Amino acid sequence: MTRVVIAEDGVLLREGLVGVLVRFGFEVVAAVGDAAELITAVKEHQPDLVITDIKMPPSFQDEGLRAAVRLRQDHPGLPVVVLSQYVQQEYAADLIGTGDGVGYLLKDRVADIVEFVAALRGVVGGGTVVDPDVVRRLISRPQDPLAGLSGREREVLALIAEGRSNSAIAAALFISEPAVSKHVGNILAKLGLPPTDDTNRRVLAVLTYLRAR
User: Fold this and answer.
1) What is the H or E stretch that residue 84 is in?
2) Preceding omega of 195 cis (within 30 degrees of 0)
3) Within 13 Å, how many C-alpha atoms sit on residue 197's CB side?
4) Which of 23, 42, 60, 207 lies at a C-alpha separation of 20 to 30 Å from 193?
5) Could you tell me how far CA 169 lies from the centroid of its own chain?
6) Neighbour tally for 157: CB within 10 Å
7) Hey, is 104 helix, strand or coil?
8) What is the C-alpha separation between 40 and 136, in angstroms, rounded?
9) Who contacts 55 (Cβ-Cβ below 8 Å, separation ≥6)?
């Protein structure tokens, strides 16, 4: 029997996953609500499979993904499947880069229970299962890293590259500071720069802008 640890902050989805897995013969040894609990549960139970949401408390950014990558480093060969609400190809690339025995699925796919369970078993068997929509995005990823930015976002990024603060950018573009903050957040997301503890994302965004030019 495959022993599973689930990490999902949404109680209804978490309990739903538990029910589905038990019904199909998996043994759920732990079901937790955040990344820290996930790390602890894996250490305690040594499962055969981990299923985790990408975005979890406290910031709801990429805690689940970072936990998954860390678990793959600490427990080589541990099968891991991450669930995402949206297609985020950078996250998929980070996970796939850890080797075989991983899965990246959109939560919509969970509705097709038979397909979902088959994907889990494929990952447990050492395969790599990636949602078709993610594959299409990875294949069609534009070569220009700035291609996904709107005209306004490019303007904001250019002013960031000049070293201007959000207030200075707002004054230059005749928009509000909250609008600038929103544009900056969109820029960082589109450039695939999720929050981390040890990097300055604005600096990385500027470097990406300068290289593109």
Assistant:
1) strand 80-84
2) no
3) 2
4) 42
5) 30
6) 24
7) strand
8) 35
9) 61, 62, 63, 64, 84, 85
Q: For residue 209, what are its two tokens?
A: 């802008």
Is the pLDDT at 114 greater than 80? The verdict is yes
Residue type, 161: A
Taking the CA atoms of the chain, what radius of gyration do you get in angstroms? 19
Instruction: Name the residue with higher pLDDT: 71 or 193.
Output: 71
Asked if residue 103 has pLDDT above 80, the reply is: yes
Q: What is the DSSP letter of 34?
A: S
Q: Is residue 32 a contact partner of residue 6, using CB atoms and an 8 Å limit? A: yes
Q: Which two tokens stand for residue 50?
A: 């981990």
**129, 81 Cβ separation under 8 angstroms:** yes
Handedness of CA 57, 61, 66, 68 (dihedral sign): positive
Query: How many other C-beta atoms are found inside a 10 Å radius of the C-beta of residue 37?
Result: 17
Question: In whole angstroms, what is the distance from residue 114 CA to residue 119 CA?
Answer: 9
Taken as a whole, the chain contains a residue count of 213
Q: Which domains does the chain have, with CATH numbers?
A: 3-139 (3.40.50.2300), 151-212 (1.10.10.10)
What pLDDT score was predicted for residue 192?
81
